[in-house]
Structures are given as structure tokens and as C-alpha cells.
Amino acid sequence: MWEHMWCLVCCNKEEMQKMKNLGSIGSSGRLSTEECEDEQISKLPISTFQSKEEEIERKKTEVREKVELQLGRAEEETRRLAHIWEELEVLDDPLRKEVAIVRKKIDLAIRDLKPLGQNYQKKEKEYKEALEAFNEKNKEKSHLVTTLVELLTESERQRMKKLEELCKTIDSLSRKQ
User: Fold this and answer.
1) Residue 102 maps to a domain
2) Is residue 88 part of a domain?
3) Cβ(44)–Cβ(19) below 8 Å
4) What DSSP string runs through 99-148?
5) Does some domain include residue 78?
6) What is the mean pLDDT of residues 147-163?
7) Does some domain include residue 108?
8) Number of compact structural domains in the chain
9) Which pLDDT band, with edges at 50, 70 and 90, does 86 fall under?
10) What's the half-sphere exposure (Cβ side, CA atoms, 13 Å) at 14?
11) PANTHER family recorded for this chain (predicted)?
12) pTM summary value
């Protein structure tokens, strides 16, 4: 900006110098060098101001164009990011629902397993008690069968002994006769 202002000042000085070189305009209706310089000096701030305003407007337009370009890019990026976000949301939803459904089923299975487990333990305890009672009764039966066999064997032995004695007695009686 300072370079631009310096250029304007230098250009105006050159124009003033040219006017001086032309000489003064006489009383024949032409301007004298002094009058020309005064007019040039009074025009100088206006033209400098106008050139500065033009430069400001030009730069303002450039900046506005750059900002509009950046806004356009930002809007496009925003649209792209929104689209990606929507795709992520769609991708997440089915997975979340499926996971929730599976978790709910697991919770139901756990809830159903608890009483089944308790029932199993109860039945297993009853089975063990029944098996123990069965084995005990089976031992008792085996012992009783063994005792019965022993008693029957002893009974048979005693009866055989008695029969032998009776046979001997009958034999001895029959010999005596």
C-alpha cells in the first residue's frame, strides 16, 4: 500500500514538473505556472483520494471473491461431511439394533437358566439321595439274600441231619424186629 501511495506522489510530482517546464501562460487568458500549480495541487488530493478509493474497492472486491470462493469450498466440504456422517449413522443403527436384540436374548437365556440350574441341582441332589438309598437297599437286600441262603443251607443241613437220624432210628428199629 505504501508503495502504491509513493508511486502516486511521484507521478503527480512529474506532472507538476512538466507544467513548470511549459512556462507560464500569459495574460492573454492562459493560466500562469503558479495558477496551474495551484490547480494541480488542489486536484492532487482529490485524485489521490479517488485512486486510493479505487484501490480499496478493487482489493475489497478481490477479498470478497476470495471469501466467496472459500465459502463455496466450505459449503461443499460441509455437504460432504454431512453425507459421510449420515452414512456412519446408517451403518451404526443396524449394528446397534442387532446387538441390543442379541443382548436381550442373552439376558432372557440367563433368566431362564437360573431356575433350570436350580431345578437341575435339586433333581441331582434328589437323584444322589435316591441312588444312595437304592444302593443302601440293594446292599441290605444282598445281605438278606446271603443270610437267607445261609439259613436255607443251614436248614437243609439240619433237616438232612434229622432225616439221617430218623433213618438210622428206623433202621435200628427194623433190625430189631
Assistant:
1) no
2) yes
3) no
4) HHHHHHHHHHHHHHHHHHHHHHHHHHHHHHHHHHHHHHHHHHHHHHHHHH
5) yes
6) 93
7) no
8) 1
9) confident
10) 6
11) RAB6-INTERACTING GOLGIN (PTHR21470:SF3), RAB6-INTERACTING PROTEIN GORAB (PTHR21470)
12) 0.38
